[in-house]
Fold this sequence. Notes:
This protein is mainly β. The chain has helices spanning 5-13, 94-97, and strands at 18-20, 27-28, 31-35, 39-43, 56-59, 65-67, 72-76, 80-82, 86-92, 101-103, 109-110, 119-124, 128-130, 135-143.
Amino acid sequence: MILTGPAIAAARAAGEITIEPYDPARLSPNAYDWRLGDTLRICDTDLDAATPTPYAETTIPTAGLVLEPEVLYLGVTHERTGSETYAQFLNGDRTTGALGIWVHVSAPLGHQGHAIRWTLEIRAARPVRVYPRMTFGKLVFLHCFGTPASYQLHGVKYTATAGIDISRLYEELAGGAT
């Protein structure tokens, strides 16, 4: 079950949902409009699942930054979101998709108990200029059924994520870097 905009606002007021910074004008009928953060990691070399991903980090200037095709960008949401009560589902939206930007296609689920600034996987179909803190997608909150199982209690590798995080699959692969 997806929370409506008014239900998101009520759950936030009750302390059941974290959205920082919060702007009630960013609520839509069934979601919260999240923004792109100020920083990107640019991954423009060959990638290997058994080794840490090399990257260059840059701050997106206020005049914008052109994303190029064939480059993987890792970004971060401006907002920190989470809930011990609800799961989250983060996606791009139609407005970014219509610009040829694919954002966060592979891992849209935010588990109960994981309050984070989301690491975003970003790809561009054509060269496209993006700006810091522009609206970049929608976040929905989902009612969970069953016994709550906080992500923070599972001891998995991304529990301490504080911002942009590269793939750490190499930690699981035999012979991978540690």
